[in-house]
């Protein structure tokens, strides 16, 4: 799992690249939190177009970022969901919490 960050003002875009399984999600969340602690963005965009596999650990990562953004009176937006990721998120009911259309 690779992570790319782009921060501008109070916005941060995070691109996840590769497989998001239990081990990768734990390391990714640690790295993401460290970066967010430095920039304190209120708007977080999570680009998932290059996520090739995701399990429930990826859902936990998304929920953690959602809670973090809400704690800062901000928002989490998901961008460019790969078809397998979108299917998993829809099956898990995440479409009731987040917009999965992007």
End-to-end gap: 22 Å
Mean pLDDT: 92
Secondary structure: number of strands: 4
In total, how many domains does the architecture comprise? 1
- What is the CATH third-level topology name? Transcription Regulator spoIIAA
Question: CATH class, please?
Answer: Alpha Beta
Spell out the CATH superfamily.
STAS domain
Classify the secondary structure makeup into a structural class.
alpha/beta
The portion of residues forming beta strands comes to: 25-35%
Radius of gyration: 12 Å
Overall, the morphology is globular
User: Which strand order do you get reading across the main beta sheet?
Assistant: 1-2-3-4
Number of helices: 3
Q: Secondary-structure element sequence?
A: EEHEHEH
Biggest pleated-sheet summary: 4 strands, mixed
Report helical residue fraction. Answer: 40-55%
CATH architecture: 2-Layer Sandwich
Unreliable spans are none
Task: Give a verbal description of the structure.
The chain is α/β, with parallel strands linked by helices and 102 residues long. The protein has a single domain, classed as STAS domain (Transcription Regulator spoIIAA), CATH 3.30.750.24. The chain is built from 3 helices and 4 strands. A 4-stranded mixed sheet has the order 1-2-3-4. Helix 2 (56-71) links the parallel strand 3 (43-54) and strand 4. Helix 1 packs parallel to helix 2. It is globular, with a radius of gyration of 12 Å. The mean pLDDT is 92.
């Amino acid at each position: 799992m690779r992570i790319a960050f782009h921060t501008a003002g109070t916005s941060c875009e995070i691109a996840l690249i590769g497989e998001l399984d239990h081990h990768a999600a734990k390391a990714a969340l640690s790295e993401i939190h460290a970066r967010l602690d430095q920039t304190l963005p209120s708007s977080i965009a999570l680009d998932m177009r290059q996520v090739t596999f995701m399990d429930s650990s990826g859902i936990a990562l998304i929920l953690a970022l959602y809670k973090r953004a809400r704690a800062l009176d901000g928002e989490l937006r998901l961008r460019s969901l790969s078809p397998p990721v979108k299917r998993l998120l829809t099956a898990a009911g995440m479409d009731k919490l987040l917009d999965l259309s992007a």
